[in-house]
Amino acid sequence: MASNKPAPEAPSRFHPDYGTGYGAEFTGEFGGDLRTDGNNAEPERGWDEWNPTEESVRPVRGRHRVAKQRNGLARSSTVLGVGVIAAVGAGGMATAQGKPPVSISVPDSIADNLPDAKSLPGMGSLFSGESEADKAEVAAAAAPLTTAGITTAEVEQGTTDAGEALRARILQQAEQQQDAAAAEAKAAQEKEAAEKAAAEAKKQQDEAEAKAAAEKKKAEEEARKKAEAERLAKLAASYALPTFSYTITSTYGQAGSMWSSGHHTGLDFAAPTGTPIKAVHGGTIKSAGLAGSYGYRTVLELEDGTEIWYCHQSSIGVSVGQKVSTGETIGRVGATGNVTGPHLHLEVHTADGTGIDPMAWLRGKGLNP
């Protein structure tokens, strides 16, 4: 870094050596107008304040050269300002304790709005008649830094160390967080248990409802069967099987070459010749006599138009137009017509003449051949 000779200081009339040897140092520099005879006489020309200009002060070379100002401010004003503030602050702090106090006067307009000194924290003890609260404030203000931040409650508990108080607060906060976490976990467990209990209760309720529905359905089915049985029993009282001591040898629709139609058109009750034949229900005798391959045949017409054909009889015990009742004997089992042995050939025809299964019709009337 380049080293430059600093500009000379201007002599001051307030310096204790002004006009003596101190001034002689500057005789050559400022034109020899300053007297050096030791009489401290005034110079021949008056001195005003010294205002150095760019022309009167030799320029400084190197990095410390003062830059030309632009709009009244130096380009490096920020750096110089920071340096000056730092220097002044350091010097001020170093010498502030050795200086006498300076009295400060405050305008009345400001003094009237200032708060009462006694109301300021820690100032009550400076005035007479201080209260207990003021004493407490003063004690708190005068307390060591190790007690800073301790609450009143902690002081009452005997806490005197701020670090210990902070440690206690941290431990208390950690304990509170643990308690909160435990409470949250407990609440979650209780919620899960409640949901599980609710699901189990719902499952049990669904099972109970399903069981009740099944039992109800079963009861309804049993009731229906019972009602049907009662109906059939009542109906059976008005219907009867056509004979007794029999054996079913051929059923309706059974195929075979012995039948001219290629299949059996009725229901065969094999029984000994002369076995009584009964009226299955009350009705009117529509026809009675020999009918070709059917042998002796009796046709009983019921009230709904249904016709019951009794075939292959050995004898007929009724006549056309006769009214008969349920279970009344109307003929005897025989082997007349196209047969291989004594039996009753029974056929059932609807009102329009269509032949149907005698077995199904008898069962529909509550009978079981």
TrEMBL record:
<dbReference type="InterPro" id="IPR016047">
    <property type="entry name" value="M23ase_b-sheet_dom"/>
</dbReference>
<feature type="region of interest" description="Disordered">
    <location>
        <begin position="181"/>
        <end position="223"/>
    </location>
</feature>
<feature type="compositionally biased region" description="Basic and acidic residues">
    <location>
        <begin position="187"/>
        <end position="223"/>
    </location>
</feature>
<dbReference type="InterPro" id="IPR050570">
    <property type="entry name" value="Cell_wall_metabolism_enzyme"/>
</dbReference>
<feature type="domain" description="M23ase beta-sheet core">
    <location>
        <begin position="263"/>
        <end position="358"/>
    </location>
</feature>
<protein>
    <submittedName>
        <fullName>Peptidase</fullName>
    </submittedName>
</protein>
<dbReference type="InterPro" id="IPR011055">
    <property type="entry name" value="Dup_hybrid_motif"/>
</dbReference>
<feature type="compositionally biased region" description="Basic and acidic residues">
    <location>
        <begin position="32"/>
        <end position="48"/>
    </location>
</feature>
<feature type="region of interest" description="Disordered">
    <location>
        <begin position="1"/>
        <end position="73"/>
    </location>
</feature>
<dbReference type="Pfam" id="PF01551">
    <property type="entry name" value="Peptidase_M23"/>
</dbReference>
